[in-house]
Here is the input.
Amino acid sequence: MSLLSQFFNYFSTNTLVAEDFHKNGVFCGTALKELRVPDRITHIGAYACYNLTALTKVEMGEVQSAQRPLNKKRVQDIAKYVYDDNGILPNTLTLATNDGSFEIFQLLDTDFYYINFPSEKDEFDLYYDKIDVMDGQHRLYSFLSDICLLHDDTQYEIGFTLYDKPTLLQRQKIFISCNEKQEKVNGNLLMWFKAKLNMLSEEEKNFFGVVQQLNESHPLKGKIIMSAETIKGGVKAKEVMAALKQAKIHYLYINGKELDDDQKVKIITTYLSAWEKFGGFKFATSKPKDVGPAIKMSGIKFMLLLLPSIWERAVATKNRFEEGFIVEVLGQLASELVVERERFFVSETTNYRFRERTGIDEFANQCISIIKSLGTKEFNPLG
Here is the structure.
């Protein structure tokens, strides 16, 4: 059942006129027995929480693909604010119809509009999944029965803005207006949103898909923060993308042909697995106190910066780009630096290099120079 249908179920009248809505403020209904929220819907309107005496079942789907991942603490904080402080939520919720199911009428000789809402179960079925929530999910979820602290008979008003059948371009503009032109969404989350709404730049597209696959593959599986989720010891997708860009991973070629995303992922996962073997650590389970910056973003960035030079080394020496070869090259590098492989990131001569961005870049350039002193010729390292 769509979010707008959910709103409609709670109205005691068949027709909601804008003027009446403004005057009366609250609508309720007693006929609704079951509520099913589909995957694309992420919140329920405030008016849904009043006088639902027949409601016995609520089913929740997964979060909509282009919705902000829910922060449960934030939802609970909003609920507490509304209850303890008689808090007002002044910002309107942003909704959008996704097809022509809802016909909008204009009152004769006025600037007021209205929509005919369904009133019977059979009518509700016709409007299943016909509305999208574009902004305001945390405010809406704070009124869910298992979270809301208000008494059942308490009336609470919250406004909403409804866009009628916005195009993808209009949705993009609405999204940017809600999230960039007002309070900023953190850069990592904004990147995730842009990917879901097909708004990534060509440059961003070079990396986002690769990072997404890396987060689904050993050895970085589950370690990359793709949006706003909490991952202990996690690294942000945007920072991994920046490291890949700086390392110029997108310029790796096989006999003059650019690599596709699957090939890039294979190369990176093989390479990082070799680092695990070389350094005796695990990205997923090792602790920073034991392996230093190796499993942090600073260490991952350093490793990625070295990748192209080791790839070129494989081409030059006609070696397959496999863990054994990579570990061998890293061993030669450690020998040149006079560092034990297990202490590569924690020795006195290297650890301090990871404390600042310039230090990482300088150390990486030093290591690249050592690796590059070893040869070149066309060869397909993937065989």
